[in-house]
Design a protein that fits this description.
heterotrimer; A mainly alpha; B alpha+beta; C mainly alpha; B: alpha+beta; Alpha-Beta Plaits; 36% helix; rod-shaped; C: mainly alpha; globular; binds iron/sulfur cluster
Chain lengths: 391, 185, 324
């Protein structure tokens, strides 16, 4: 029986496959990586054309996890939208929380109490650690080692225990409120954070021994998936992808929001622009986050004001007419929320700028001409969170 | 010479990192387990205290079987997921005698007070399957009648079971043992 | 007319094959359990725990579950080849156990070319993997099969050469003879005389058995499951058993060639053989749960650029020393 390829059979494959097949070369194979592929972490789908194991073309197909987060912003009141922000990016939800409440605060001209700012910094950085640990484990899992994710979850579990105390949840936090945060950090929580920092510092060398220095891993990630400055500029990549290309662009330092200008920390960069660069940037960032948390915990002790401003607006608040954009540095890059108000109870428009979306699109170009295994290594190094791409 | 070094000596040196990796996992192998072995073990209550399970009602301090709730509907209007349903209690129907007595009193020119509807709600239905655990209801309750429960080990096989009648739950709780007053803000 | 010796041989052979089947089955069960427990403890969790005391019956339960599942063949797959592949994968393994000397007297068939028999029949596995990938009409399956073939073919060569170095020393292909030629104590084993061959054999063994870090044929984060993507139920079960059986064979042969086989301090016997084989198996498990997977071209580079020249060098050096 003669095989019919999707390009010739009008009924084979879906729209994307058929489109993609049109340019298929001779003796090549078009395969779908995803939407249920183990290394796409969810429902990302990538159509690739391979010649042997070499990738000739790759094309991400989005929309399998579209939940209309932006549209939901137009039907819910300003306060009711906060829980949505915990679900856009399950890896680093507090960054989204922050971007959204930041935009609303900007609209309403609200000054957040100092203590609340400190709490925001601490929880957001702790959350960044959980996000990086999740990425680390999952990335190494993509590369074929099963054990490291268990070790990273050991640490991550402690972080979740800490974060559970003020936020009452373990993954999808809706903790920030317009004008502050929902609940104060209690003494036990501070104690736990203080105990966690040295423990985690002592764990980092183990991570390095087990994975970072491992020759197999290094050979898998070094010089793989080059995304240099120029590509970053064209695709709008941010976060560790951009810093891995040698550009010290970090919103916490470049456009200091909140109280980040008070802390002493470095922006780690790598010149290599490859997967290893991005990997090392994230590993170094974890150490820097620890430094910030350390300083913030100290600052919290003599910070003024409550955890939320005395007359915090109700969920049914009506911000004045206008528009505001607020961006924070999430674990994956620049997290931005653009909010337009018409002076009504519900927003006119909420636009979410997600870093994963921009970062993903660099993949198609970076993966060209690499091996299938390299594509997995590149994809993993971008640290994609699928719900954030589809929003 | 440097090419020789790079292509021959270096890989051999790099092999050492593999031994180091084995050492790390070997060490962990000999260490004790760190997982909580459910159902033989459960996590400490202290960790559970901050866990936000589903929403539950808080009873009055003197009468733990009745909620503090005053049926003001703030929680219902503010809930983003629309998973709460509060039905206000109706004013009690007057019996014929009472109505007569009332009419008499009115005729006498006394100031009569029709019995008002009780403030405690008649029904308080909560759909856990929809709840996003955002605590908006808890914050907006004027009398602090809501809080997160600490139910963690709860599994059901049907969606229907996730619909909770919070009033009935509160009565059951009151019968069992009074919980310490909520510190939830 | 059959004479008495032939009948004797035939009965012996039948018993041996049946015993080998049982041995494969038992080993698969024990190894699966050990591997999962071992992995669990490396990851600081208990591993299987629910079925039986300390989860000891878990592999049995898994086996039952596998058998109870639907046998499924994707549309467009070649039915004959599709079902032939798993059987072809497992059946030759049974033969491989025959020439292995478990104890001084405990050999099913004391063939003088035992090691060659093993090497020859183990190559059939490649064919099985190729058929599985090809016949299941799945693109990932084909990729997995292509990887499996080039990998197995490549790694067979250094494996063979390292084995040859040992046979040079003992002058025999008979596994029993190789065992007895070594002494009881570790420093009298071939390991001491042939450390390089041992190392090459070990690395090639990982490649031959498709075990991590060389498990490219079924690399699930790249190829979903490689050649057995489309197999369910016992189709998958047979591949699974075959994989463990090959591990046992490879480690047994390694024990015989390099670690003195059944020879050991105090008293020779099958206990030493088992202990050494399982020590090697645990090493394989340990390695699997520690390292990431190598890339495909790296895998072949390791073979062609490192193992093969080293093996040839080792062989020549051995020959030279033997001649002197
Ligand atoms: S926690 Fe949020 S979603 Fe759940 S009932 Fe309360 S307001 Fe509604
Ligand atoms: S629970 Fe609180 S907010 Fe909801 S109706 Fe009762 S009093 Fe009002």
């Amino acid at each position: 029986m003669k095989r019919q390829y999707a390009g010739t059979d009008p009924l084979a494959g879906d729209f994307y496959t058929r489109q993609f097949e049109k340019d298929r070369g001779e003796h090549t194979l078009v395969v779908n990586m995803g939407p249920q592929h183990p290394s796409t972490h969810g429902v990302l789908r990538i159509v690739i054309e391979i010649d042997g194991e070499y990738i000739l073309r790759a094309d991400p197909v989005l929309g399998y996890l579209h939940r209309m987060q932006e549209k939901m912003g137009e039907v819910q009141t300003w306060g009711q939208y906060i829980p949505n922000m915990g679900r856009v990016d399950y890896g680093h939800p507090l960054a989204w929380n922050w971007a959204y409440v930041g935009a609303v605060e900007k609209l309403m001209g609200i000054q957040v109490p100092e203590r609340a700012e400190y709490i925001r910094v601490i929880t957001c950085e702790l959350n960044r650690l959980t996000s990086h640990l999740l990425w680390w484990g999952a990335y190494i899992l993509d590369l074929g080692a099963f054990t490291p994710i268990m070790y990273s979850f050991d640490d991550r579990e402690m972080l979740l225990d800490i974060l559970q105390r003020p936020t009452a949840s373990r993954l999808t936090y809706g903790y920030f409120r317009v004008g502050g945060v929902r609940k104060d950090l209690d003494d036990r929580c501070i104690e736990m954070i203080k105990a966690f920092i040295p423990r985690f510092r002592s764990r980092l060398p183990m991570y390095k021994d087990l994975v970072t220095d491992n020759i197999i891993l290094r050979k898998r990630v070094e010089d793989i998936g080059i995304i240099d400055r120029d590509m970053c500029r064209r695709y709008g990549c941010s976060g560790p992808v951009l810093r891995g290309a040698g550009e010290p662009y970090d919103l916490r330092r470049c456009e200091p929001y909140s109280i980040y200008d008070r802390f002493d920390f470095e922006i780690p960069t790598e010149e290599t622009a490859c997967s290893a660069g991005r990997y090392l940037v994230r590993m170094a960032e974890m150490e820097q986050s620890l430094r910030i948390i350390e300083q913030a915990v100290e600052g919290l002790a003599h910070a003024e004001g409550g955890h939320i401003m005395p007359k915090a607006p109700k969920p049914s608040m009506k911000p004045p007419k206008g528009e505001a954009y607020f961006a924070v540095e999430g674990a994956r890059g620049k997290v931005g929320v653009y909010a337009v108000s018409e002076g009504k109870k519900v927003p006119y428009r909420i636009k979410l700028r997600s870093p994963s979306y921009s970062n993903l699109h660099a993949f198609a170009e970076a993966a060209q001409g690499t091996l299938l295994a390299d594509a997995v290594a590149t994809l993993g190094s971008l640290d994609l969170i699928i719900p954030e791409i589809d929003r | 010479m440097s090419a020789f070094r790079q292509n021959v000596i270096q890989p051999i040196i790099d092999l050492w990192s593999l031994i180091v990796g084995l050492k790390v996992t070997g060490k962990c192998f000999s260490q004790k387990l760190i997982t909580v072995h459910y159902p033989r073990e459960t996590i400490e209550d202290e960790d559970l205290d901050t866990y936000g399970g589903h929403v539950e009602l808080v009873g009055k301090p003197k009468d733990p079987a009745t909620p503090k709730c005053i049926s003001c509907m703030m929680c219902v209007t503010n809930c983003p997921s629309r998973c709460l349903k509060v039905v206000k209690a109706k004013a009690p129907k007057l019996t014929a005698e009472q109505q007569e007595a009332l009419a008499e009193a009115k005729a006498r020119g006394e100031k009569v007070k029709k019995p008002r509807a009780p403030k405690t709600p008649q029904k308080f239905i909560y759909d856990y399957s929809l709840c996003s655990l955002c605590a908006t209801c808890i914050e907006n309750c004027p009398v602090h009648s809501l809080r997160f429960s600490h139910t963690m080990y709860w599994a059901t096989t049907s969606r229907e079971e996730l619909k909770l009648d919070l009033l009935a739950r509160l009565r059951r709780q009151a019968r069992r043992k009074p919980r310490p007053a909520a510190k939830e803000s | 007319m059959m004479n008495a010796i032939d009948v004797h041989m035939l009965i012996r052979l039948i018993i041996a094959v049946v015993a080998a089947m049982a041995w494969v089955g038992i080993n698969a069960l024990v190894l699966v359990y050990c591997e999962r427990k071992f992995a669990g403890h490396i990851q600081r969790r208990p591993g299987p725990f629910e079925v039986g005391p300390h989860g000891i019956l878990q592999p049995l339960a898994d086996g039952l579950k596998l058998m109870g599942k639907q046998l499924f063949r994707p549309a467009g797959a070649d039915a004959f080849l599709f079902w032939l592949a798993p059987m072809l994968s497992l059946l030759p393994v049974l033969l491989l156990f025959l020439p292995i000397p478990y104890g001084p007297m405990l050999t099913a068939m004391n063939v003088s070319l035992g090691i060659l028999l093993i090497l020859a029949f183990s190559s059939l596995n490649v064919l099985a993997l190729l058929l599985a990938g090809w016949s299941s009409n799945n693109k990932w399956g084909i990729l997995g099969a292509a990887r499996a073939v080039s990998q197995s073919v490549a790694y067979e060569i250094p494996l063979l050469l390292s084995v040859l170095a040992v046979t040079f020393m003992t002058g025999s292909f008979n596994l029993s003879a190789i065992s007895t030629s070594q002494g009881a104590w570790p420093w009298q084993w071939n390991l001491m005389a042939q450390p390089l061959a041992f190392f090459i054999y070990l690395v090639s063994a990982f490649g031959e058995t498709n075990r991590a870090p060389f498990d490219l044929a079924e690399a699930e984060s790249e190829l979903t499951a490689g050649f057995h993507t489309e197999y369910s139920s016992m189709g998958f079960g047979l591949f699974f058993m075959a994989e463990y059986a090959y591990m046992v064979v490879v480690c047994s042969v390694c024990t015989v060639l390099f670690l003195g086989g059944f020879r050991g301090p105090v008293a020779d016997g099958w206990w030493w053989f088992l202990a050494k084989t399982y020590a090697l198996l645990f090493l394989m498990i340990w390695v699997r749960w520690t390292y990431p997977r190598v890339r495909f071209d790296q895998l072949l580079n390791i073979n062609w650029k490192w193992l093969l020249p080293l093996a040839v060098f080792n062989l020549l050096a051995t020959a030279f020393v033997m001649k002197l």
